[in-house]
Specification:
7-stranded antiparallel β-sheet, binds zinc ion
């Protein structure tokens, strides 16, 4: 999956925080957090995008979490974690992606 420079939702440049993994590789935490959406991705050198987290429900703080390394996708709300079938996120239509994620899980 290709790296992110700009937020796929609002197209602003992502905030970029660099650090080093325990085994000495470069890692970047890139994010855009606003009142309407929240996008975070973790990029590890040299593998590329390692994880993506997006808020699917800003009012209830529901988060979709992709782990690219082991191809898992889960929806998290507080202590509740629901694994759903993995698919590659298509950020060309951000709102459609959010809608798709919402159809998988409805937290009561
Ligand atoms: Zn944004």
């Amino acid at each position: 999956m290709k790296d992110f420079i700009n937020c796929p939702k609002c197209n602003k440049p992502l905030l970029n925080e660099a650090s080093i993994t325990r085994d000495g590789r470069d890692i970047w935490n890139k994010r855009c957090i606003s009142a309407s959406h929240s996008f975070t991705c973790i990029v590890i050198d040299p593998d590329g995008v390692s994880a993506i987290m997006i808020v699917t429900d800003i009012n209830n703080n529901v988060i979709a979490n992709w782990k690219m390394d082991n191809q898992t996708l889960c929806i998290v709300k507080g202590k509740n974690v629901v694994n759903i079938p993995f698919f590659e996120p298509d950020f060309s239509d951000y709102d459609k992606l959010i809608q798709k994620l919402k159809t998988y899980v409805t937290f009561s």
